Amino acid sequence: MLYNQKDVIGYASWGTNDLQRTERLLHFQWLPGAIAAEFVSTSARTFQRPPDQWKHTTWEDRSHYFAGTPQGLIGDVLHEGATGASGNTYEPYLMGCARPDYLLPSYQRGRNLGDSYYIALPYLSWQGVVAGDPLCVLK
Fold first, then answer.
1. What dihedral do alpha carbons 9, 10, 16, 17 form, nearest 10°?
2. Is 23 within a domain?
3. Is the pTM of this model over 0.85?
4. Domain total for the chain?
5. Do residues 12 and 103 lie in contact, with contact meaning Cβ atoms separated by under 8 Å?
6. Domain, as residue range, for 35
7. pLDDT, tens digit, 9 for 90 and up, residues 115-124
8. pLDDT (tens digit, 9 = 90+) per residue, 55-75?
9. Least CB-packed of 20, 25, 40, 43 within 10 Å?
10. Cα separation of 22 and 13, whole Å?
């Protein structure tokens, strides 16, 4: 698990599903135009900001859920400075998540943020959410 990275332009991970992730915020220094994707079932369930002291927890620890689940939020990476992020409102299963192996190369080759995410999504459904300026282009 990575924390406190500088000059981050692209990030993909298991998010709060990674058992090594112990902190809610990544504390990255995001470059302008930076994008992120995480394999998290409900990371776009709300854009309401949780209390600063809230931390993700386990499914068994229902007393610390935020907006219905214990999972992290794409709003956190956006708040920390990422330009775009993808997430899900509900369980898309792994095959429905944005694929970093398509997302990051497409964006690096000059496609805009919107095109890059939609190339990376295996199918469109009500679960998938992309937040960010769709016309943003990496320069």
1. -160
2. yes
3. yes
4. 1
5. yes
6. 8-132
7. 999 999 999 8
8. 998 999 999 999 999 999 999
9. 20
10. 14
